[in-house]
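**User:** You know discrete backbone vocabularies at least as well as I do. Would you mind producing a protein record, from residues through to fold? Write it directly below this note and I will take it from there.

**Assistant:**
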Amino acid sequence: MVRAAGHRDGVNFRQLHRSIFLKAARGAEYQGPHMRFNRTWFRREVAPMLLLLLLITAARSSFADHYYVPSGSMENTLFAGDRVVVDKTAYGWRFPYTKIDLVEGARPQAGEVAVFDSPADGVLLIKRIVATGGQVVSMRDGNLVVDGVALSASGVRSREVFGEHVAELNFADGGGPPIDRLVVPPGKLLAIGDHRGNSLDARYWGLIDERELYGRAVAVYFRKGDGFVWKPL
């Protein structure tokens, strides 16, 4: 027995599909063996989940997030594979997915580890702020002198002290390019990696604007080989 195209076992599937489409478009319900469309069910079950997902995503954009360290440019403070908690409210509260400040936050301070977009290619970076607007900076063999004061700890070249923040440096690849009495303009920041000879940082792409910071790195919460940890930065 031969049946016309679109028919199977006496059922006209073209008409059936058209009927389902029209009912769905009117918000009606079609109850069949493989399909059920119900606008009330969508509002009750799906819409709240979509709203929750949106709120979670917005919170990550505006309040807190985590950062995966992709390289060794911040050794010996951070290592490749580290996962870091980032406080996105440290420098102000922003409207989600924008750089529009809703509430002004603290000013960035030298010694803090911050997350921002690279001025060179837009890639998200994590570096240490070593100087802020108005400070005069020099660097010789990888060690910093800020406003005439050497930051290296007494007798320990691989450790620099920024008030309450301590940078554990890596000189395995030397000290990198020098800096000669750079005056940081107001509103600008000098951001450099702790692995001084192996960090693509401000010595290559220049200063960054304060408002370009996404947030302040708070602590390492996961490290390869150690598992879950809590190492404040």
